[in-house]
Amino acid sequence: MSTWRSAGLNYVNYSNIAAQVLRRSLKADQKEIAMRRGKSTIRYFYWVQGSMLPEGEKPKQLEKEKA
Predict the structure, then answer these.
(1) How many CA atoms lie within 13 A of 19 on its CB side?
(2) Tens digit of pLDDT for each residue in 6-63?
């Protein structure tokens, strides 16, 4: 059994921890570039009847459910 598995981690968690440790161990000039690369963002796009709605607009059905 893998060490990370016996520690109760899945592979994604293990690789994220290893990447963080590596980024922290770099020299200052390369560390800044690597830290920016480690950030991620999520953007949501909604589709109605096969076409994408403009960014930031939600389907009317979703707005009714939240109200």
Answers:
(1) 12
(2) 888 899 899 889 988 998 899 988 988 888 877 777 788 888 888 888 887 888 776 5
- Token pair recorded at residue 23: 């980024």
For the record, the structure tokens of 22 come out as 């590596």
Tokens matching residue 51? 């076409």
> Can you tell me which residue has the tokens 């968690």?
13
Under a CB-based contact definition with an 8 Å cutoff, are residues 59 and 48 in contact? yes
- 23 CB-near residues (< 8 Å, 6+ apart): 31, 34, 35, 38
Q: For tokens 């949501």, name the residue.
A: 44
Q: Do residues 43 and 31 touch, judged by C-beta distance below 8 A? A: no
pTM over 0.85: no
